[in-house]
Amino acid sequence: MYRIFGVSPETFVPTVGALLELIHPADRQSFDAWYTACAQGGATGELVIRRIRPDSSRRWISVRGSLTKRSGDTSGYISGTAQDITETKDIEEQNKLYATKLEISLMQTVDVITAIFEIRDPYTAGHERRVAEIAVAIGAELGFDAARQQGLRMAGYLHDVGKIIIPAELLSKPGKISAGEIALIREHAQAGYDVLNKVAFPWPVANVALQHHEKIDGSGYPQGLKGDEIILEARIVAVADVVEAMSSHRPYRPAVGLEKALAEIERGRGAGYDADAADACLRLFRDKGYQLPR
Ligand SMILES: [Fe+2]
Ligand SMILES: [Fe+2]
Predict the structure, then answer these.
(1) Where are the domains of the chain?
(2) Considering the entire predicted model, what is its pTM?
(3) Check whether domain 94-286 has CATH 1.10.3210.10, yes or no
(4) What residues flank ion ligand 1 with Cβ within 5 A?
(5) Which fold has domain 2-84?
(6) How far from each other are the two terminal CA atoms of the chain, in whole angstroms?
(7) What is the Cα–Cα distance from 134 to 284, expressed in whole angstroms?
(8) What is the 20 CA–ligand 2 centroid distance (Å)?
(9) Ligand found nearest the CA of 237
(10) Residues whose CB is less than 8 angstroms from the CB of residue 57 and which lie 6 or more positions away in sequence, other chains included
(11) Matching CATH topology for 2-84 and 94-286?
């Protein structure tokens, strides 16, 4: 213990006050509470504290202790162990930092893909980003945790990546399109899946791309899936996709508008669109003052 705390047994008297002096100020309160619980014979478990050495080096220390009493004694003493866990802690922190950097660079890569798409198809610029933001808001409204929300964001950004197979002239073609052209446009769902399925995302990004045009009643494409056969993330992105698309201008029509988009979601609630996702979307816009992302 003396070695771990960096003190000498000749000069250091291990009272609680003296120990507190050795501990990082931010950890003193928790150590004090832990020590008091120990002294009262309570269950204490592990406590991790930081020790700042006189040379300013920081050490992480794990302490465990319990009250030891001999029969007949009114008071006892605290016995326990202290373990230097600095190396493990440092590795943990490095891993956290690495994971954060990796997540940032992944998001930046996705931004690049979106930017390339916007050069090719400037008429729908911002569609993917806005769908992502609306989907995340719906997910949060439905109680998704941060990790699952991040998956929705990624899926929103990439749901139309399969549109790369559609010629740019068709994407921006004003006026009516033929049945053959509609069939080609519809292939973007499967094409997106084929590309994204090769990436080991920790979220169901490829399946969102595949299923975001499916409808709850089975009238969607490409597989005509029904209800729960469609993953929840895809049902959410489907709602976000319709709201964004109807609210935005397209080469073949002016913007329909948010109000009509919400009316469409309300009309199709439970038939075309997932009831919970639709309700969450309507609540956000109508009751909670959520604004369409710019
Ligand atoms: Fe799509
Ligand atoms: Fe879309």
Answers:
(1) 2-84, 94-286
(2) 0.77
(3) yes
(4) 160
(5) Beta-Lactamase (3.30.450)
(6) 59
(7) 10
(8) 59
(9) 2
(10) none
(11) no
